Amino acid sequence: MTEAQMQMNEPEAHFGADASAARRETGPVILDLKNISLSFGGVRALTDISFDVRQHEIRAIIGPNGAGKSSMLNVINGVYRPQQGQITYRGEVRKNMDCHAAAKSGIARTFQNIALFKGMTVLDNIMTGRNLKMKSNFLMQALYWGPARREEIAHRIKAEEIIDFLEIQAIRKTPVGRLPYGLQKRVELGRALAAEPEILLLDEPMAGMNVEEKQDMCRFILDVNDQFGTTIVLIEHDMGVVMDISDRVVVLDYGKKIGDGTPDEVRCNQDVINAYLGVACS
Amino acid sequence: QPAEQYIALPSYRVGPYAAGGSGFYGGIIDYFNLVNLSGGVNGVKISWEECETEYNPSRGVECYERLKTKNGGATLVEPLSTGVAYGILDRLAVDKIPMTMIGYGRSDAANGKVFPYVFPLITSYWNQAAAMIKYLGDKEGGMAKLKGKKIVHLYHDSAFGKEPLPVLEALSKQYGFELIKIPVTPPGSEQQSQWLQIRQAKPDHVILWGWGSMNAVAIKTAQRNGFPREKILGVWWAGSEEDTVPTGDAAKGYSAMTFNTPGNYPVMDEIRKKLYDAGKGNMADPARIGSVYHMRGVSAAILWVEAMRTAQEKFGKGKRITGEQMRWGLENLNVDESRQKAIGVFGMLPVVKTSCDDHEGSGAVKVQQWDGKKWNAITPNWIVGDKALTRKLLEESSAAYAAEKKITPACAK
Amino acid sequence: MTTAAPYLSVNNVEVIYDHVILVLKGVSLQVPQGKIVALLGANGAGKSTTLKTISTLLRGERGDVTKGEVQFKGERIDQLTPNELVRRGLSQVMEGRHCFGHLTIEENLLTGAYTRSTSRSELKASLEKVYHYFPRLRERRSSQAGYTSGGEQQMCAIGRALMAKPSMILLDEPSMGIAPQIVEEIFGIVKDLNSKENVSFLLAEQNTSIALRYADFGYILENGRVVMEGAAADLSCNEDVKEFYLGVSGAGRKSFRDMKFYRRRKRWLA
Amino acid sequence: MFMNFFFEVLIGGLLSGVMYALVAIGFVLIYKASGVFNFAQGAMVYFAALTCVGVMDKLGVSLWIALPITVAVMIVLGLAIERVVLRPLVNQPEITLFMATIGLAFFIEGLAQLMFGAQVRKLELPIEDVPWQYLMDHYNILVSQFDIMAAAVCGLLVTSLALLFSKTKIGRALRAVADDHQAALAVGIPLQRIWAVLWAVAGIVALVAGLLWGARNGVQFALTFVALKALPVLILGGFTSMPGAIVGGLIIGASEKLAEVYIGPMVGGGIEGWFPYVLALLFLLVRPEGLFGEKIIRRI
Amino acid sequence: MLYREAGQFKTSYQADGQIFPIMQDRIALLALLAVAIVFVPLLASPYVLSAILIPFLIFSLAAIGLNILTGYAGQLSLGTAAFMAVGAFASYNFILRIPGLPVLVAFVLGGLSAALVGIAFGLPSLRIRGFYLAAATLATQFFVVWCLTKIPYLTNYSTSGVITAQPIVIFGYNFDTPDRKYLLVLAVVAVMALLAKNMIRSNVGRSWMAVRDMDVAAEVIGFRLMRTKLLAFAVSSFYCGVAGALYAYAYLGTVEPEAYNLDLSFRILFMIIIGGVGSVLGSFLGAAFIVLLPVLLNVVAHSLTLPTSVASNLELMVFGALIIFFLIVEPHGLARLWQIGKEKLRLWPFPH
Ligand SMILES: Nc1ncnc2c1ncn2[C@@H]1O[C@H](COP(=O)(O)OP(=O)(O)OP(=O)(O)O)[C@@H](O)[C@H]1O
Ligand SMILES: Nc1ncnc2c1ncn2[C@@H]1O[C@H](COP(=O)(O)OP(=O)(O)OP(=O)(O)O)[C@@H](O)[C@H]1O
Ligand SMILES: [Mg+2]
Ligand SMILES: [Mg+2]
């Protein structure tokens, strides 16, 4: 093995080594999932899963492919309705919540297979994220006059803040369909942020990025978490990222929960190692 | 530069009704060419321009607008399409261009006091419907025999098919026959259920008020359901070769109305000899000379040329007449038997004599029957229905139109 | 790179999208027979575009090759149809999965063998091989691909390309969305095919560390130009590559949490 | 008597439905292969029928000689369409391809009439469109023998096409193409060749439909409208399914006739124009992909 | 002379949110409007006004309507003509039955009636998509025309179902000549196009496009699918309804329900696809293409002294071929072609 290769192996070997030091204070439980089960026909995507998310924390969900991670997010924001289980959000038991209601109550998300509006520009995509905050009706918007216009501009200012924050000023007016994958992911994050959510669900936000871009993305996530106090639920396959930035990690495998705890605890959980990590903790 | 009489022809030679269009306009142009070959009308040659409407009202209006100002202004227009005719109806009086609607369009337009520029020449739908009932009554052996009979009105479910309803309803009341109305949704390429209904009703006669491909389908479907074709009587738009040829033998015995007596006439021979033999015929297929649509086109052209002649008598021979003068010519038309003989079309069309009150000028029709190869007239005489009734309806309807449009009925000078 | 004659070579290609967007500005690269070549570069550098140029899939996206040529086994291929390329042994795994959503996983795999006219048993053997590589696919073999998870679709896309028994595979971000263990396995498969069946690979990859670990050569693309090339081992020793692609600077690897500033990469060429 | 009439209407409807299905098959073929609704199908039906009678007329040959010539023409047409229209439009949005088929429809209509004129023509098949005497005599039920033949032809077509497409490589490839052109190309499916073949086959199906409809209604421009009759059949049966075309055709045919006969008179008649659409629409509310259509995958 | 963005800095989002952010475009548009209002009525012949410009504007309006539904909200519809018919016949009835009702109000009411019908027939769109929906919208087309032929009340008991549009009188001023009608139509179309543009650049428009591009994601973000789609149907039908009323009142005069047949629906659809799906400008370009091209071809074909039937058929073929040609050159329609032209101009003289 060359020296370089040794170095490259290194990160996996001792990820998160220095990260455990300064865990932040997190708030009370904001989202509590109890005994969630979800199946599609014969496929059991989730079986009896319980976990909670505390305010202001970064909560990671990891697990092998097809473990049910994305399905879990879909349950949280109401795209799928679990056959069993109970979801308590901000102290209230949620019944029959659809995704619109979830959005209204402050849950925003990004998607694994980018779900941007391909025909629209970056700016418009981000503006769609603010739709729930728009008050004027369509007639006023048609006239584009008075309050409607003021409102539009006010929201535009917010959108521009996000654009600045994510450093995508240069592509503001580009149709998103033409953007490279990594930038699309960033725009999608921007759209979710535009809703000023309480909980932000991120489905593999760093897939398809190189290290530098991942670093940027991590920075964005951490900043959102710090500056706006947004709670973040994150799915990611890059263990370096997960172990470094998350406060607690839940591990799924075949729709079952096999681990839950701080990154360090999870890292050394034998089930998790067998099912997913493949590398023993050091 | 000798004067030319310019006529606008918004025609259609593609699309669903192309077959009719090419025959009709072919006939018109053939006759124009014939007239021009013999030096025109008192030396005034006829010029014309065609424009493809595809039977589409909006394209038809564009064509009309485009054609009307060309060559010093059109002096006559004929779109052979109800939709197009309606689209330009309001513009005619402003533009002072008369329009003929030979055998179609609104029947009440025969009232020249309300529609000075519109000429539903020869016969309107109302008079035709009346004539059909007359014919059926005669066939039964007198109008009184119609009592208790069942007559189906199988119609194209559109303005065209509904036009004769007032007449048929009035007559059904008057003579006591049962009128069963069965609509066919355009284009009418499937009529199984209608014909099953007809078979079920066991009518004595079926009036086929169809148009385009609906006719052939009707005849074919009658055959497949074993309904005798002899009991079917078509409107004149259901009485051309285009309607019967595609059905093969199925149409044998089927009869339909016409305002042209099928047969050969000197004028057709001339067209054949002077035009087609010289390669100047308008239609691609010389076999269509003398076909129903072609004959109808020739008839239309004859009436126009006669109107020109009449107008020239009054406004100056050998001069190009204006649209207004043409209108006068059309309003004072008298194509009687001697005139017909002179032209070489004696008996081909009824006598047409117009006036301000009567822009139709005739109202007489014949019945023709398909023998499997060609149409043959089966009524030796021209039939005229209850004109008093249609006159009454006409007055009512045109008065309503005049009121709506705020027109004071009056004869134009 | 003198070890072998170029199996695939891309010469000075220029690509324009939509008649106005110039994306590749003269890219040249070679893949020697039986080697693994990595194509690295940031988002939007033009990696996918390069691969699509080779596989002539660009046409469907309103991209035009305005300059340059592509040769495979010594013949020009830029005018061929993708079907013909697959027949000649060149397969592509497209970025973003592109599974046939309405087909089941197994049907997806079978379409991969479309160009092969082999016996049923051989087909079965190929299928078994893919299932052996990706056991997860075996479990989901009869689900419609549209309803499988992201990673499963990615496996399906790779498996589908393998079904054609190609001699050269273009892989566009195979590791995207795949669990780390499987990523290792995928690269293991790549190495395996490479050494046992002499399959050549050109892979566009963001996971630089693993790509350089398995590749023989590497090219680094920036803004539509090749800015650096060399043996994989050399590249991974390069300080710039280390810092910007591998995330290890002089002081060793830094935690993602501690990146206090957005770091701006130095551009080799403007 | 009442029941007898009911059955007549029902059978008549079912057989009309077969005629609709015949046209619908052509649509299914193209939709399967490209996910696109082929607006030009009606024009192709007209073109095929007109070419056949045109050839008979112009060359003075019998149907049996004109038929293979027309088949050849339809194949050439299919190949040309692929080469000139479809190949440059690979991977374009469906609506673009749809529009291209509209352009194609105009072109084909113009071409057909330019070559053979716009006259209405007679087409006589060796089987007559008259009631089948046997059924008439024994059961007093009226069924045209022509319809029986049409049903047989249609059944044959559907079975063979369905067999061809169900389990074979080609069938799979077609579904793949409809899902994703780009990926289909990437796995080496010869999109161009498949399209060419399918359009040629669609041309031949159009010919069959054209002959049967043409024999019934005369070969005339209105043949292009029979497509309208096939549409509700398609949405009911599912755009992608051969058996769907048949089943949909039967349902639509029977129900529209029954509706026209039993409901029509109450509302002034002429409901055949919209009834099938409304029926299909109501049905779609329950099954948005039609009876046998592939389920639309909506997932995030 | 130079077409550049450079040097035009926007100092506020308001300025950036303008419909035409580049100054040259704004000037060009104003100039165009000025020409359309002042010079065209003076210079254009009655033929150009009444046979080309008026239908062009009316079709543009209908195309904008369809574009809102199909281009922006992604719901393919083949029932445009039906909504136009509702607008026309409703306006006719309102004027007929409410004495003294101003014509423009009647047009608005006609549009609203069309909007109601649109909502009713838009309901299935909540479950049905794509070509299935398109085929299902044909139900609207046939059903509406059927109603108009079957319900005598709607056509004021005219036996044949034909109606004659009342004269357009606004504040005692009779719009009866081509130039007056043209100005009226121009005003209506210009105002409505502006309103459409406004909607499209605000939240409604974004909601439509979001639903078009990915409806599940739109829902997750908080758009209500039902409301958004139905609003698109309503607004679109409103536009079509007004266009239909203008078609009857300012163009045809006397109409039968058949004038609003499937053929017309298709023509409007052609317009937006040729012009550009999801582009207001495209609606105008497409309408111009579909209105002008046949006229042009007709003139050319007839000046070639071909036999008329040959000319007519060639015309049809060339029309079809040109549609295909344009799609191949630019699948996103004339509007995109225009845009690319502008982008090239912006870069000019450098190729990229
Ligand atoms: N269809 C298209 N139309 C216009 N521009 C495009 C198109 N596809 C790609 N581009 C542009 O081409 C450039 C290169 O894109 P490409 O997808 O090749 O990058 P990449 O290196 O693969 O990036 P990533 O790592 O994100 O996949 C990008 O700037 C992108 O915006
Ligand atoms: N709508 C659905 N219908 C049927 N099966 C589904 C559906 N959604 C998910 N599944 C199945 O449920 C399982 C879990 O899927 P999920 O997308 O949640 O996995 P994941 O953990 O996100 O995997 P990956 O890391 O590969 O994205 C998979 O096997 C998938 O095939
Ligand atoms: Mg997932
Ligand atoms: Mg890429």
Which structural class do the helices and strands of chain D define? mainly alpha
The average pLDDT score of chain C comes to 85
Q: Tell me the major beta sheet of chain D.
A: none
> Number of helical segments of chain C?
10
Q: For the largest sheet of chain C, list the strands in their spatial order.
A: 6-7-8-3-9-10
Overall strand count of chain C: 12
| Ends apart, CA distance between termini of chain C | 26 Å
Classification by helices and strands of chain C: alpha/beta
Oligomer: heteropentamer
Q: Give the proportion of residues in helices of chain D.
A: over 70%
Give the proportion of residues in helices of chain C: 25-40%
How many angstroms separate the termini of chain D?
58 Å
Largest interface: A-C, 56 and 58 residues
Q: Give the overall silhouette of chain D.
A: globular
- pLDDT averaged over residues of chain D: 87
Number of helical segments with 4 or more residues of chain D = 12
Entry summary:
The complex is a heteropentamer of chains A (282), B (413), C (270), D (300) and E (352). Chain D is mainly alpha-helical. Helix content of chain D is 74%, strand content 0%.
List the helices and strands and how they pair.
The complex is a heteropentamer of chains A (282), B (413), C (270), D (300) and E (352).
Chain B: E1 4-11, H1 18-37, E2 45-52, H2 57-68, H3 82-95, E3 99-100, E4 118-119, H4 125-140, E5 150-156, H5 159-162, H6 165-175, E6 178-184, H7 192-201, E7 205-209, H8 213-224, E8 232-234, H9 241-244, E9 255-258, H10 266-276, H11 292-315, H12 323-331, E10 334-335, H13 337-343, E11 352-353, E12 366-370, E13 375-377, H14 387-405
Parallel strand pairs in B: 1-2, 3-4, 5-6, 5-7, 7-8, 8-9
Antiparallel strand pairs in B: 9-12, 10-11, 12-13
Helix pairs in contact in B: 1-10, 1-11, 2-3, 4-6, 11-12
Chain C: E1 6-17, E2 21-32, E3 36-41, H1 47-54, E4 63-72, E5 75-76, H2 82-87, E6 90-93, H3 105-112, H4 120-133, H5 135-139, H6 150-162, E7 168-172, H7 180-197, E8 200-204, H8 208-214, E9 217-222, E10 225-231, H9 232-237, H10 239-244, E11 248-249, E12 252-253
Parallel strand pairs in C: 3-8, 3-9, 6-7, 7-8
Antiparallel strand pairs in C: 1-2, 1-4, 4-5, 9-10, 11-12
Helix pairs in contact in C: 3-6
Chain D: H1 2-34, H2 41-59, H3 63-86, H4 94-116, H5 133-139, H6 145-166, H7 169-179, H8 181-186, H9 191-217, H10 226-237, H11 242-267, H12 275-286
Bound molecules: adenosine-5'-triphosphate (2 copies) and magnesium ion (MG) (2 copies).
